[in-house]
Amino acid sequence: MATEGVDTLTMTRIVTYNVHRCVGNDRRLDVGRIADVLAALEPDIVALQELDVGRRRTGHVDQAHEIARRLSMSHHFHPALRVEEERYGDAILTALPERLVKVGPLPGHPRTAALEPRGALWIEAMVEGRPVQVINTHLGLVPREQQVQAAHLAGPEWLGHPDRNGPTILLGDFNATTSSLVYRTLSADLQPARRLAARKQPTSTFPSQLPVLRIDHLFVSDGIIVRDVFAPFDPLTRAASDHLPLVMDFDLA
Questions:
Q1: Is the distance from CB of 73 to CB of 46 less than 8 angstroms?
Q2: Helices (DSSP H) in the chain: which residue ranges?
Q3: Would you say the pTM of this structure is higher than 0.85?
Q4: Which 3 state secondary structure label does DSSP give 136?
Q5: Closest among 168, 188, 184 to 176, alpha carbons compared
Q6: Cα separation of 32 and 37, whole Å?
Q7: Confidence band for 185, pLDDT divided at 50, 70 and 90
Q8: Rg for the chain (alpha carbons), in Å?
Q9: Which of 4, 20, 31, 197 is most deeply packed, by most CB within 10 A?
Q10: What residues are paired with 126 via a beta bridge?
């Protein structure tokens, strides 16, 4: 897990992963395969996007619960979308002591109100005995919608919230590249983790079979020492989802 020459005893690993409702590039629905990708990475905290819970199209499985069970982690799920008993959204999983701070929807642009709803969830995880704020999100597909959502995340409801104290990690699928206004908006308060990494590795995550786009990101506050950021590219990760997972190893200052 650790960068060569770095003390592995205090290293913490966090992963963000758009799992595409656990349907891979071979069109096979396989929750276990997603869990296998994550188990091989040995993460301490996992942020997932595009999970189905109780949906007919994926066999009514609670994907958040099942992946967490296979990894022996607790989890919190936020449904950005509800259709009667069916839910679809994002989750945070961890084996660390934690508490849920907040979940909520993200606003859309007034002219794009019919698009898929989006949300975010926030936990406080105890890392090395210290609280770390972890916020997972999945932004929309339309740039003007993304810009509204990024501004909301940067505002008083989330990053500017009085409870957001100490080391913070904002991560997820932002559907926006490093040249976007979204990226610049979120970089005004936090630092892109890939810029701070002690060594540089490939971090493009989409599409997983031939990753050329950086649209999954990690942003960090002061107090987070980024050791490594990378997107594992192997036969399993290429098949399991249309995104690669994005991994960060870090210490606390």
A1: yes
A2: 31-41, 63-71, 143-154, 181-187, 193-196, 235-240
A3: yes
A4: strand
A5: 184
A6: 9
A7: very high
A8: 17
A9: 31
A10: 131
* Tokens 């619960």 sit on residue: 65
Q: How far apart are CA 122 and CA 169, in angstroms?
A: 10
The answer for residues whose C-beta is within 8 angstroms of residue 71's C-beta and 6 or more apart is: 35, 38, 39, 46, 93, 95
CATH architecture of 12-252: 4-Layer Sandwich (3.60)
Q: Which of 96, 138, 92, 94 is nearest to 117 (CA)?
A: 138
* CA pair distance 55, 150, nearest whole angstrom: 28
d(CA 58, CA 3): 38
Indicate the SS3 state at residue 11: coil
pLDDT tens string 69-92: 999 999 999 999 988 889 999 999
Domains in the chain: boundaries:
12-252
User: Are the C-beta atoms of 205 and 197 separated by less than 8 Å?
Assistant: no
The per-type count for the chain, helices as H runs and strands as E runs, is: 6, 13
36 phi and psi, to 5 degrees? -65, -40
